[in-house]
């Protein structure tokens, strides 16, 4: 299997796991566990899982001390601030507002990648991202989202989260290229744990784990291992082998996965509008992931000698 195929499979799996999280996490939060406690639990489990896999399969280390500061920055933007702002914002604003604002992430990824990494912009990539964004807006309700004074602080938090996560996807790429992705992810989560701990300890100490029903334990296991540990590891692998813009563009598939899972579980139904929205998203992501097309299209065809 080629590296390109592995990258796309990794990013598709990430979108699938995140899509399921939107449906499953609501079963546990906030009735059984509050948002910040959930964040701390996700990071704790992820650190343990990554550490075990790292010891068994990688055993790498950060050899250059000057990379410790970039790792701290990656932990701040990719783990601590990212999770705190998103969960805090989502508790104030509406789910539709939050989903719409998160669509800014791929746009900022392209901007940061052009500034920090020198990744080239072209009509095909910009058009693909725009097409996917339009499809995602249709899928999530079109005009049903509403920005008002009551949700403004939550909207601001989610918007900041979108920008911060976009910066992380671009900033961490250099570390992913220099070191094994699992090594970078391990250090990022380790540092991120201590950054989140002061904000989340109070809520975490209030969780009555002994009283949690079995289905909630299953949800916690899925979110902590599946949509935290696996998603960050797979994203790290993709960042090492692909452009940051491609990694960011796959965010548009998350609402598609969420909608499909909701339909399979009987909580939603397929309609012509939803089918069209999904086709637009898939087409947009496909265009954004093949920026070389524009260059090949522009190249003049070689003349056939007579």
Question: How would you describe this structure to a colleague?
Answer:
The protein has helices spanning 3-28, 35-58, 68-92, 95-102, 104-117, 123-139, 152-171, 173-178, 181-205, 214-241, 244-249, 254-264, 272-288, 292-298. The protein is mainly alpha-helical and 306 residues long. It has one domain. The radius of gyration is 20 Å and the shape is globular.
Write the layout of secondary structure elements.
Blueprint (H helix, E strand, L loop, with lengths): L2 H26 L6 H24 L9 H25 L2 H8 L1 H14 L5 H17 L12 H20 L1 H6 L2 H25 L8 H28 L2 H6 L4 H11 L7 H17 L3 H7 L8
Helix pairs in contact: 1-10, 1-12, 2-3, 2-9, 2-10, 3-7, 3-9, 4-7, 5-7, 6-13, 9-10
What is shown here, in short?
By secondary structure, the chain is mostly helical.
Oligomer: single chain
**Fraction in helix:** over 70%
Order of helices and strands: HHHHHHHHHHHHHH
Count up the domains: 1
Radius of gyration equals 20 Å
Main pleated-sheet profile: none
Number of helices: 14
Q: Strand fraction band?
A: under 5%
List its salient traits.
single chain, 306 residues, mainly alpha, disordered C terminus
